[in-house]
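Q: I'm writing up a methods section and want to include an example of the input and output format. Could you take the sequence below and give the corresponding predicted C-alpha coordinates, formatted cleanly so I can copy it straight into the document?
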Amino acid sequence: MSIIIQGQGVVKRFGSLTAVDGIDFAIAAGECFGFLGPNGAGKTTTLRLIHCVTPLAAGQLMVDGLDVSREGRRIKSMIGVMPQEDNLDPDLTVRENLLVYARYFDLPGAAARSRAQELMELFQLQDRPGSRIDTLSGGLKRRLLAARALINSPKILILDEPTSGLDPQARHLMWAKLRQLKEAGVTIILSTHYMEEAAHLCDRLAIMHLGKIIAQGRPADLVWQHAQREVLEVRQGPSARRDLRERLAGHAVRVEEADETLFLFCQDGEALRRQLGLSGEGLTLRPSTLEDVFLLLTGRALSD
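A: Here is the clean output for your methods example:
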Protein backbone atom coordinates (compact mmCIF):
# COMPACT_ATOMS: atom_id res chain seq x y z
CA MET A 1 0.00 0.00 0.00
CA SER A 2 1.51 3.31 -1.14
CA ILE A 3 0.78 6.18 1.27
CA ILE A 4 -0.01 9.44 -0.52
CA ILE A 5 -1.07 11.57 2.49
CA GLN A 6 0.28 11.22 6.02
CA GLY A 7 -0.35 13.33 9.09
CA GLN A 8 1.53 13.01 12.37
CA GLY A 9 0.58 15.02 15.43
CA VAL A 10 -1.42 17.45 13.26
CA VAL A 11 -2.62 20.49 15.20
CA LYS A 12 -4.60 23.55 14.14
CA ARG A 13 -5.62 26.33 16.51
CA PHE A 14 -7.82 29.37 16.02
CA GLY A 15 -6.95 31.61 18.94
CA SER A 16 -7.80 29.67 22.10
CA LEU A 17 -9.75 27.04 20.15
CA THR A 18 -7.92 23.85 19.16
CA ALA A 19 -9.86 22.70 16.11
CA VAL A 20 -7.55 19.77 15.29
CA ASP A 21 -5.81 18.26 18.28
CA GLY A 22 -2.74 16.16 17.46
CA ILE A 23 -4.22 13.66 15.00
CA ASP A 24 -2.38 10.90 13.14
CA PHE A 25 -3.67 9.41 9.89
CA ALA A 26 -2.43 7.88 6.64
CA ILE A 27 -4.28 7.71 3.32
CA ALA A 28 -3.29 5.24 0.62
CA ALA A 29 -3.05 6.19 -3.04
CA GLY A 30 -6.21 5.26 -4.90
CA GLU A 31 -8.45 4.73 -1.88
CA CYS A 32 -11.49 6.62 -0.69
CA PHE A 33 -10.88 7.81 2.86
CA GLY A 34 -13.62 9.41 4.93
CA PHE A 35 -13.63 11.86 7.82
CA LEU A 36 -16.80 11.59 9.91
CA GLY A 37 -17.87 13.56 12.94
CA PRO A 38 -20.46 15.93 14.37
CA ASN A 39 -20.40 19.65 13.61
CA GLY A 40 -17.26 21.23 15.02
CA ALA A 41 -15.33 17.95 15.14
CA GLY A 42 -12.49 19.30 12.95
CA LYS A 43 -13.29 17.55 9.67
CA THR A 44 -13.37 20.57 7.37
CA THR A 45 -10.33 22.08 9.07
CA THR A 46 -8.43 18.86 8.40
CA LEU A 47 -9.39 18.99 4.72
CA ARG A 48 -8.25 22.63 4.54
CA LEU A 49 -4.90 21.66 6.06
CA ILE A 50 -4.42 18.96 3.42
CA HIS A 51 -5.29 21.44 0.69
CA CYS A 52 -2.90 24.04 2.13
CA VAL A 53 -5.66 26.61 2.62
CA THR A 54 -4.88 27.03 6.31
CA PRO A 55 -1.42 26.61 7.92
CA LEU A 56 -0.46 23.98 10.46
CA ALA A 57 0.08 25.03 14.06
CA ALA A 58 2.12 21.92 14.91
CA GLY A 59 2.91 18.45 13.63
CA GLN A 60 3.73 17.27 10.14
CA LEU A 61 1.49 16.75 7.13
CA MET A 62 2.86 15.32 3.88
CA VAL A 63 0.99 15.12 0.56
CA ASP A 64 2.59 12.94 -2.12
CA GLY A 65 5.97 13.42 -0.44
CA LEU A 66 5.57 17.21 -0.18
CA ASP A 67 5.40 19.16 3.07
CA VAL A 68 2.25 21.30 3.29
CA SER A 69 4.20 23.96 5.19
CA ARG A 70 6.68 24.45 2.34
CA GLU A 71 5.18 23.13 -0.90
CA GLY A 72 1.65 24.53 -0.86
CA ARG A 73 1.61 25.68 -4.47
CA ARG A 74 2.75 22.31 -5.85
CA ILE A 75 0.30 20.43 -3.63
CA LYS A 76 -2.64 22.60 -4.74
CA SER A 77 -1.83 21.88 -8.38
CA MET A 78 -2.49 18.15 -7.89
CA ILE A 79 -5.68 18.49 -5.82
CA GLY A 80 -9.28 19.12 -6.82
CA VAL A 81 -11.67 20.48 -4.20
CA MET A 82 -15.46 20.36 -4.01
CA PRO A 83 -16.42 22.68 -1.14
CA GLN A 84 -19.42 22.33 1.11
CA GLU A 85 -20.74 25.75 0.15
CA ASP A 86 -21.89 26.82 -3.32
CA ASN A 87 -19.22 29.24 -4.57
CA LEU A 88 -20.01 29.10 -8.28
CA ASP A 89 -19.86 32.41 -10.11
CA PRO A 90 -23.50 33.47 -10.65
CA ASP A 91 -22.55 35.83 -13.50
CA LEU A 92 -21.18 32.99 -15.64
CA THR A 93 -22.73 30.04 -17.44
CA VAL A 94 -22.07 26.38 -16.67
CA ARG A 95 -19.33 26.14 -19.31
CA GLU A 96 -17.83 29.51 -18.38
CA ASN A 97 -17.53 28.46 -14.72
CA LEU A 98 -15.43 25.52 -15.85
CA LEU A 99 -13.31 27.47 -18.32
CA VAL A 100 -12.55 30.33 -15.93
CA TYR A 101 -11.56 27.87 -13.22
CA ALA A 102 -9.25 26.11 -15.68
CA ARG A 103 -7.19 29.30 -15.93
CA TYR A 104 -6.04 28.88 -12.33
CA PHE A 105 -4.22 25.74 -13.48
CA ASP A 106 -2.82 27.31 -16.67
CA LEU A 107 -4.73 24.95 -18.95
CA PRO A 108 -4.42 26.03 -22.61
CA GLY A 109 -7.68 27.14 -24.20
CA ALA A 110 -8.22 24.09 -26.41
CA ALA A 111 -7.38 21.69 -23.58
CA ALA A 112 -9.69 23.56 -21.18
CA ARG A 113 -12.59 23.44 -23.65
CA SER A 114 -12.08 19.73 -24.26
CA ARG A 115 -11.84 18.99 -20.55
CA ALA A 116 -14.94 21.09 -19.78
CA GLN A 117 -16.96 19.19 -22.38
CA GLU A 118 -15.73 15.86 -21.03
CA LEU A 119 -16.74 16.81 -17.48
CA MET A 120 -20.14 18.15 -18.51
CA GLU A 121 -20.82 14.79 -20.13
CA LEU A 122 -19.50 12.89 -17.09
CA PHE A 123 -21.91 14.70 -14.76
CA GLN A 124 -24.78 14.88 -17.28
CA LEU A 125 -24.57 18.64 -17.75
CA GLN A 126 -24.00 18.54 -21.51
CA ASP A 127 -27.48 19.92 -22.18
CA ARG A 128 -26.91 22.97 -19.95
CA PRO A 129 -23.61 24.55 -21.10
CA GLY A 130 -25.16 27.99 -21.59
CA SER A 131 -27.35 27.99 -18.48
CA ARG A 132 -26.81 30.65 -15.85
CA ILE A 133 -26.12 29.43 -12.34
CA ASP A 134 -29.28 30.94 -10.87
CA THR A 135 -31.38 28.76 -13.21
CA LEU A 136 -29.86 25.50 -11.93
CA SER A 137 -31.39 23.25 -9.30
CA GLY A 138 -29.43 22.41 -6.16
CA GLY A 139 -28.54 19.02 -7.59
CA LEU A 140 -27.20 20.50 -10.84
CA LYS A 141 -25.09 22.98 -8.86
CA ARG A 142 -23.55 20.15 -6.81
CA ARG A 143 -22.75 18.25 -10.00
CA LEU A 144 -21.16 21.36 -11.51
CA LEU A 145 -19.07 21.86 -8.38
CA ALA A 146 -17.86 18.27 -8.72
CA ALA A 147 -17.06 18.80 -12.40
CA ARG A 148 -15.15 22.00 -11.59
CA ALA A 149 -13.10 20.15 -8.96
CA LEU A 150 -11.88 17.80 -11.70
CA ILE A 151 -10.94 20.41 -14.30
CA ASN A 152 -7.20 20.01 -13.58
CA SER A 153 -7.34 16.17 -13.74
CA PRO A 154 -6.31 15.98 -10.06
CA LYS A 155 -4.42 13.17 -8.45
CA ILE A 156 -6.33 13.78 -5.21
CA LEU A 157 -9.98 14.82 -4.91
CA ILE A 158 -11.29 16.45 -1.71
CA LEU A 159 -15.05 16.40 -1.20
CA ASP A 160 -16.66 18.29 1.68
CA GLU A 161 -20.27 17.11 2.07
CA PRO A 162 -20.57 16.33 -1.69
CA THR A 163 -24.19 15.19 -1.65
CA SER A 164 -25.58 17.63 0.92
CA GLY A 165 -29.13 18.58 -0.04
CA LEU A 166 -29.41 16.13 -2.92
CA ASP A 167 -32.40 13.90 -3.49
CA PRO A 168 -31.81 10.10 -3.52
CA GLN A 169 -31.56 9.88 -7.34
CA ALA A 170 -28.96 12.66 -7.54
CA ARG A 171 -27.05 11.19 -4.59
CA HIS A 172 -26.78 7.79 -6.25
CA LEU A 173 -25.66 9.43 -9.50
CA MET A 174 -22.90 11.22 -7.60
CA TRP A 175 -21.85 7.97 -5.93
CA ALA A 176 -21.61 6.25 -9.30
CA LYS A 177 -19.38 9.01 -10.69
CA LEU A 178 -17.13 8.91 -7.61
CA ARG A 179 -16.74 5.15 -7.96
CA GLN A 180 -15.67 5.67 -11.58
CA LEU A 181 -13.04 8.17 -10.48
CA LYS A 182 -11.72 5.82 -7.81
CA GLU A 183 -11.49 2.99 -10.33
CA ALA A 184 -9.45 5.36 -12.51
CA GLY A 185 -6.93 5.74 -9.67
CA VAL A 186 -7.99 9.06 -8.14
CA THR A 187 -7.48 9.27 -4.37
CA ILE A 188 -10.69 10.57 -2.78
CA ILE A 189 -10.96 12.23 0.63
CA LEU A 190 -14.52 12.58 1.80
CA SER A 191 -16.22 14.44 4.63
CA THR A 192 -19.89 13.59 5.09
CA HIS A 193 -22.73 13.43 7.60
CA TYR A 194 -24.42 10.64 5.64
CA MET A 195 -23.41 7.35 7.28
CA GLU A 196 -24.81 5.33 4.36
CA GLU A 197 -22.63 7.36 2.01
CA ALA A 198 -19.51 6.72 4.08
CA ALA A 199 -20.23 2.99 4.31
CA HIS A 200 -20.97 2.85 0.58
CA LEU A 201 -17.95 4.77 -0.70
CA CYS A 202 -15.12 4.65 1.85
CA ASP A 203 -12.45 1.97 1.98
CA ARG A 204 -11.43 3.32 5.38
CA LEU A 205 -12.49 6.22 7.55
CA ALA A 206 -11.67 8.19 10.67
CA ILE A 207 -14.29 9.32 13.17
CA MET A 208 -13.46 12.69 14.72
CA HIS A 209 -14.82 14.27 17.88
CA LEU A 210 -13.67 17.51 19.53
CA GLY A 211 -10.65 17.76 17.26
CA LYS A 212 -9.39 14.22 17.87
CA ILE A 213 -9.61 10.99 15.90
CA ILE A 214 -11.38 8.53 18.18
CA ALA A 215 -11.61 5.56 15.78
CA GLN A 216 -10.13 4.53 12.43
CA GLY A 217 -10.59 1.56 10.15
CA ARG A 218 -12.74 -0.08 7.52
CA PRO A 219 -16.46 0.63 7.95
CA ALA A 220 -17.38 -3.02 8.46
CA ASP A 221 -14.57 -3.52 10.99
CA LEU A 222 -15.67 -0.48 12.98
CA VAL A 223 -19.24 -1.76 13.11
CA TRP A 224 -18.08 -5.18 14.29
CA GLN A 225 -15.70 -3.71 16.87
CA HIS A 226 -18.01 -1.13 18.44
CA ALA A 227 -21.60 -2.17 17.69
CA GLN A 228 -21.30 -5.96 17.28
CA ARG A 229 -23.53 -7.71 14.74
CA GLU A 230 -27.10 -6.78 15.70
CA VAL A 231 -29.14 -4.23 17.64
CA LEU A 232 -32.25 -5.12 19.61
CA GLU A 233 -34.26 -1.93 20.19
CA VAL A 234 -36.65 -2.14 23.15
CA ARG A 235 -39.20 0.62 23.70
CA GLN A 236 -40.64 0.46 27.22
CA GLY A 237 -41.62 2.65 30.17
CA PRO A 238 -39.14 3.80 32.86
CA SER A 239 -39.74 0.98 35.35
CA ALA A 240 -39.61 -1.70 32.66
CA ARG A 241 -36.34 -0.26 31.35
CA ARG A 242 -34.79 -0.30 34.84
CA ASP A 243 -35.87 -3.91 35.31
CA LEU A 244 -34.45 -4.90 31.93
CA ARG A 245 -31.11 -3.25 32.71
CA GLU A 246 -30.88 -5.31 35.91
CA ARG A 247 -31.65 -8.53 34.04
CA LEU A 248 -28.94 -7.73 31.48
CA ALA A 249 -26.21 -7.96 34.11
CA GLY A 250 -23.83 -10.72 33.11
CA HIS A 251 -24.83 -10.68 29.42
CA ALA A 252 -22.23 -9.72 26.81
CA VAL A 253 -24.37 -6.81 25.70
CA ARG A 254 -23.63 -3.12 25.34
CA VAL A 255 -26.61 -1.02 26.41
CA GLU A 256 -27.42 2.52 25.28
CA GLU A 257 -30.54 4.48 26.19
CA ALA A 258 -32.23 7.32 24.32
CA ASP A 259 -35.67 8.70 25.11
CA GLU A 260 -37.82 5.63 25.84
CA THR A 261 -35.67 3.13 23.94
CA LEU A 262 -32.92 0.77 25.08
CA PHE A 263 -30.45 -0.21 22.37
CA LEU A 264 -28.95 -3.64 23.06
CA PHE A 265 -25.85 -4.31 20.93
CA CYS A 266 -25.20 -8.04 20.67
CA GLN A 267 -24.07 -10.87 18.42
CA ASP A 268 -27.42 -12.70 18.28
CA GLY A 269 -30.44 -10.51 18.89
CA GLU A 270 -33.03 -13.28 18.54
CA ALA A 271 -31.25 -15.45 21.11
CA LEU A 272 -31.02 -12.49 23.47
CA ARG A 273 -34.72 -11.74 23.01
CA ARG A 274 -35.61 -15.31 23.98
CA GLN A 275 -33.26 -15.32 26.99
CA LEU A 276 -34.87 -12.12 28.28
CA GLY A 277 -38.41 -13.28 27.52
CA LEU A 278 -39.18 -10.20 25.44
CA SER A 279 -42.14 -10.22 23.07
CA GLY A 280 -44.94 -8.06 21.72
CA GLU A 281 -44.84 -4.51 20.43
CA GLY A 282 -41.95 -2.16 21.01
CA LEU A 283 -39.25 -4.56 19.78
CA THR A 284 -37.09 -4.05 16.69
CA LEU A 285 -34.23 -6.34 15.68
CA ARG A 286 -31.89 -5.08 12.97
CA PRO A 287 -28.25 -5.29 11.82
CA SER A 288 -25.82 -2.82 13.37
CA THR A 289 -24.77 0.07 11.14
CA LEU A 290 -22.08 2.70 10.87
CA GLU A 291 -24.58 5.22 12.25
CA ASP A 292 -24.76 3.13 15.43
CA VAL A 293 -20.98 3.34 15.73
CA PHE A 294 -21.07 7.08 15.15
CA LEU A 295 -23.66 7.63 17.89
CA LEU A 296 -21.96 5.25 20.33
CA LEU A 297 -18.65 7.09 19.97
CA THR A 298 -19.78 10.72 19.68
CA GLY A 299 -23.04 10.67 21.66
CA ARG A 300 -26.65 11.35 20.75
CA ALA A 301 -26.82 14.97 21.92
CA LEU A 302 -26.88 17.75 19.32
CA SER A 303 -23.68 19.75 18.88
CA ASP A 304 -23.09 23.11 17.21
